[in-house]
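ok so i was messing around last nite and threw this chain in just to see what happens. nothing serious, just curious
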Amino acid sequence: MRPNAAPAIEITSLNKVYGRTTALHELNLVVQPGEVFGFLGPNGAGKTTTVKILLGLVRPTGGEARIFGLPCTDPSARRLVGYLPENFRFQEWLTGTELLELHADLADMSSAERALRIPEVLRLVGLEDRASERIRTYSKGMLQRIGLAQAIVHNPQLVLLDEPTSALDPIGRREVRDLIRSLSARGMTVFLNSHLLSEVEMVCDRVAIIDRGRVVQSGRMDDLVGGEPELSISLDHVDTDALRLLLQFGEVLAYDAATVRLGVADTSVAAVIADVLPRAGYRVYTLVPVQRSLEDVFISLVERGEP
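result:
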């Protein structure tokens, strides 16, 4: 039994060194039960190493990782985890049901448990009508769904998903997003590793951005993409006088020959700017509030090389 109060994932001062390469450096991370948590970073940032440590496939050089209060190397902890890798291959001669029977057997589920659970999981992923067909006949979207089904067939408390929508079309990605939300609504914790930042932004409660083995930013999605209000102002021309005038209303974050990005305390100041600029001889083409995206946050952190 897992301790009810324990985090789903708790990583403390985690280090991993491969020869002269440091994959993880004092990594700290906490994921609460029931969250959909996004784990983001550029290639080589340490995401895969972290997941392998959580799965007990790689031993850390230092620090520790715990799953619901248990060391991640404890077999009892691994029983609480489901996993869908990015590049998976299933036995294509099996049917969907047979594949789930195999994974239920690996999870040591009883015959009574699997008799109830396998049909339930097939309905959940939308494959109940195709369960008797060979996996070799499945489309990419169906393969992704049966992959998700095998990850959750033993009803884990934590599901690790590695790029679960990368090979899917927009309809398939939406179906996977809906399934992730469904898992969260059922109380499962979902740890999502993806480079499709727009997908993460739509489905995750919190995210952590990792770069060069360290978490450089983490928090609730609303807090990360909210930030300070900004205005994007497009003029017939931008000169020093225009910049000096706009500095009365906020901080000039960026500009070029025709546009200015202005950080402001409140976007309601736009009405005043729209009145002042024409009076000063400038023609205003657009003046709109700017909402930062997760991609904006990600790129700014990685390009700056923080910390």
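not much to say yet. The domain at 228-291 is CATH 3.30.70 (Alpha-Beta Plaits).
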